[in-house]
Input
Amino acid sequence: MLLTWRRWRRGRPFWGGLAAVLAGAEICALPLAPLKIMLQQGIAGIPSVLMGLVMIVMGLSAWFAPHYRGLAGVLTVLCAAAALVMSNLGGFLIGTVLGILGGSMIFAWQPLVVGDQPALSK
Output
């Protein structure tokens, strides 16, 4: 079981996807926080939720469809940078930093090549 988990995790950009999912969750959660924590409220919370959901979907697509890692990485970085302006300073900078880091790791990940074929586990 543990060997299967390791093989699955190493066959995709796992840590970048995890950072993207955490960043998206953090950016999505802030509009739902109490008023004392929020910087903006109302219609300004909609872009936060949408960008957070896009980042979560891109992190999950990096896990379950690693051949789309280029698109997922670029969209994650763009959403994280846009969240800095549109979403409470990008989740108080934590979401933006995690999103840029995760998107960069997703984009930079390369599958291990053994012989002619990439060694992606099923």
